[in-house]
Fold this protein.
Amino acid sequence: MLSKRGKRLGVFGVVVIILVAIILVLVLRGEKEPTVPGVGNPDETRQVTDKVWPAALAQSIPETSVLANQAADVAVLGDRLYLVDSVGGRLISVNMDGSDAKVLDKTVDPELALRTPMAIANFKDQLLYVADSDAARVLIVTPEGKVNRVIALAKASPADALPPRPLGIAVFNDASFVVSDANNHRVIRYTQDGSIVWSVGTGVPASGPTSFNNPCGVALDRQSNVYVADMFNEQVKKFSEDGAPLLAFGEAGDNAGEFARMKCVAVDEAGYIYVSDSLQVAVQVFDPAGAFVGFVGRKDITDPKSDSLFYAPHGVKITGRRLFVVDRFAGVFIFALGTVPTPTTLPSDSETTATTAGSQEP
């Protein structure tokens, strides 16, 4: 009996030792598991920048059930904001302080039946252009929610397998507009009647000055140049009003001045370029030539280790000296932009400057 009991204890001891060893291995693996960069986890290898762009938080409008569900973009008309509710399929009109929220949907106008609105832009404080992404169309809407026109987006090429899927939109002074087509990796300019003026892109994911890999946000500067957030190439690309390539900059990474998952872009009156990045959880700022000059989004701008104000920054717009940032989960942030330096480097309008292309995910 003692011999059998001893054998049982010996087997039990071996099992215990094995279990302890497994636990120790798991603990050690957990300690060595790399943290996810750009989402608030500590990362000692990440370079923290002290370049903070002069932008003071003036107002925040938290996401609530009254406001948009995962808002994607914002337009400013007068003293009111217009948010696209990408999940609810509607527009939300609200005062700058978040009060007097109004829902604009098919109950206001039967034609305002949105499927997945992802971008919005204003035209001269008169009209709103809404990119209804999954419906391959753009709606021109009054501030009261009445639909003036519905434009079905034509394919830029008969070879394109899918209809356009607009993720970004900007409007020219002549009421024509430009959209990013994420389905076919193009940027397309249309007349206000929906005829194609020009397009840039090959129809498939590709890198290079005139190619895209899932283009997202678009914006215009004061000269009507077009800026595109080329998301999976991790680059900002600039084109003339006629679609000629002028500038390309950016590379993939998790450090200041690099892109982890860029979303949208805006340009201020001095030509500085603002880019939202959902994994960097910040808005990064670049001079007109594409050099990194600072960022917006730290809760405590004096503390390099401070958490970000944002969770998933997406749409960015600039009106005068105000920067509007739409966060998919945190609402809308309004920043007062301070005095910015006069740009010392300017891009050439006759040459295309390209840096390293970013990752090309399928």
Q: What stands out?
A: The first helix runs from residue 2 to 32. Residues 61 and 97 are 7 Å apart (CA to CA). The longest strand covers residues 55-61. Helices lie at 2-32.
